[in-house]
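Ticket reopened. Same input as before:
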Amino acid sequence: MRRPLYLIQEAFVNIRINRTSVMIGIITTAFTISCFGLFALLYGNLKNLAGTLQQDIEVLVYVQPEASDKIVEGIRQRLEGEKAVNVLSFVSKAEALKEFHQQFPDESTLLQGMEENPLPASFVVQISPQFQESDSIEAFAERIKQFPGVEQVRYSQDWIDTLALLVSYFEFGAIVIGLILAVATITIIANTVRLSFYLRKEEIEILRLIGATGSFIATPYVIEGALLGACGGALALVLLKGVFEFFLLEINASGWFSGLESVLIFFPFQTSLFLVLSGMLLGCGSSIISVFGLMRVRNEAT
Amino acid sequence: MIQLFHVSKFFERCTALHDVTVRIEKGECVLLTGPSGAGKTTLLKLIFGAEIPDEGQILVQNRNIARLREADIPYLRRTMGFVLQNFKLLPKKTVFDNVALPLIIQGVSRADSKRKVGEALKAVGMNHKHTSQTGVMSAGEQQRVCIARAIVNNPIILLADEPTGNLDTVLTSEIVELFKTIHARGTTVLLATHNQSVVEEMNGRVLHLQAGRMVSDKGPAA
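Engineering reply: fixed in the latest deploy. New output:
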């Protein structure tokens, strides 16, 4: 029990001796992890947004103006028989006109000169969750286009697909940037730990002289690196939370993208923990790379 | 205990040791003498595995130093004690912490450590200063602490490289007395010095080195 305690104490001694470099190391590590975290946050939210939009996807089935009630009823019955249909509602020509006036009160005058209501009746189809894949929706739309009395089928899949593509680009970008920043973090922590090592070179020589093994000498530096990485990760988390909250406030204040704030999410607890643990693991790895290369016992001791 | 067979060591353009053959038995007190640059420190470094001989073989406790894996060297060193001219103590740590260090490395329990450190400090007359920081101590006191650290784990061999190099005559005599006491307990002592008074007071076997060669090997005076 005494030996582990000694090694932990020595790690804190290293941090105290080398505190300026350690602080710089923590801050730079925090910034590099923040950059990755920002990308991951953006990616997570875009993915979440894409998922939400996909869930709310609606297919609008416009009925031909001359279609009789019988044909309209026929369309309804066939749609109700479709497995892809989750919720089905009908918007008559009169309801469509009413909605138009409600949604575009300033443009109401556009329809004043017309004798007949030009807006078509339509069915609004909410798609069942198991049919929300792009291919399924497309196949469904193609099928109902063939129904007698159907004028046009519209759905907002195109830009949802674009969003999905964007998410996949972000996924790739997050991996690439994550790798680049991991290398940067390893370099920063490795140099900080190496500096600690050189500052205590004489002590290390003494330890070697009296029979300390390489792992005994290296362990405090590995602990130092792990603490540095974990602190960097935690600080990055705080920074990201600050930026996220600031962004939400800005959205609310500006009034743009209203409703977006309810969709945006910060990292869940597990991801936050993962971020801190990643910093810790990077710190451990950096220290091991940095210190074990200096562990030669021959030609070093006095 | 320690055997050197035709050992040579070269550093770039100079020969530190040339064809040295010597056998040191268990419990012997051996004084390694010679002027600066004669090869005394190199010989000690070879014995504790900090250097590898370029020629010849070294056996320490029947282990061939040249063939010893790096990972095994710390375990060899744990059977030895070291006393150096510049003490090599941790200045910001207390006397107790410095002396206890070899025991912490070996994973000795706190209670055993306390007992062994107490005994070692008592042997060198420093038990009253166990809470003092070594950085503020006199040279004589630091050397005593260094000796306590060297003997705390009851080493089989005690190696000392110019242990009185930084001390005045009075302190030198006190340190020599300590070495004699340690030797009297049965520890093999190998002490490198160019101080003739130390050689005379220790009254051990004297190996004289000159320009890397062993030029004489004399037993203790009767």
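The CA atoms of residues 62 and 122 of chain A lie 4 Å apart. Chain A has a mean pLDDT of 83. Please confirm and we'll close it.
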